[in-house]
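Journal club side-thread
Mid-discussion, someone asked how the predicted structure for our own chain would compare to the paper's figures. Pasting it here so we can look after the session.
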Amino acid sequence: MSIFQRARKVAREVVARVRPNYQRRIEIELKNYQQCGNVHELPDIFHYWSNKYLVPMMQPFGFTNPDDFFLEFLKRLASKHSESEIRIASIGSGNSDLEVRLASRLVAAGHDHFIFECLDINPAMHERGRALALAAGLEKHLSFVQADFNAWAPGPDTYQAIIANQSLHHVVELEALFTSIKKGLKDDGLFLVSDMIGRNGHMRWPEALLVVKQFWAELPERYKFNHHMNRIEKKFVNHNCARWGFEGIRAQDILPLLLDCFHFEFFLPYGNVIFPFVDRGFGHNFDANAEWDRNFIDRVHLADEEGLLSSRLKPTSMLAVLSKGDGQTLVRHENLHAKNCIRWPNHKPAKRL
């Protein structure tokens, strides 16, 4: 059995486990986001890390953050198709705050011939999106579709662009969704993605877990308070965030399935062992103005980046532009093509990094 066949087998097992309690997971997901007005709020230490390290990665390509990434490629499409309305589908749009920001900036850049179709299962989040669009005077540029993206069925050749912002890692039926996206895109359309591509449930693979634990051992106890669980974790716990809901449910399948379905025009992967320290769970324990805290994050990042560039670690986040065409792929480093960044479930890494 090939590596790809074994990975497919693992994926089928995940889907088979999820389907019997799918509706219960839906209920949990709806409840989790019912009162969630800001799903992207991050600790100050995350912004310290991203400003110091992610911004320089992105600047050579004409943007400095995910918002600018989406905007840059949507502006290119708007300029290219200035004589016709551009339809943009947003998969798992949530509160549609990103879509409102992008619409505002597109209008400010002189583009008025577009509409976002915001697809999400949560009616409460749609209501917040409508309120945001109305307050910004952008209601004509946003429409709202309440639906489960696992069963989305767009018409053929409908959209000039489809965007997915931190939503694919919630999808169970990835194969069906990617087939629908490919069908719904026009021949010269673009699929723009900012998402997580690490291990299912946002767990660490063994080789990354080893590095995380090494740095974890250096931390004083006050840095080990888990803000999600409301407890101290003296030893690092490799949490499976997909145990009850959809968080990271098939994250490890996203990259290989995208490679199977689309051509990568642009691929910028980043981050692995850094995320437990700067994300919402533990990142609020760090002081972005404290020298020791910044130095610690710097060292974690440098170890992370060395692991990624040497292929001993695989990235867990990406920005990507995909299409139905072919040709060259623009990447940030020659060792970080999409194919090289797949972490197969049955891969046996070296015992030491």
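Post-session note: The chain is about 40% helix and 15% strand.
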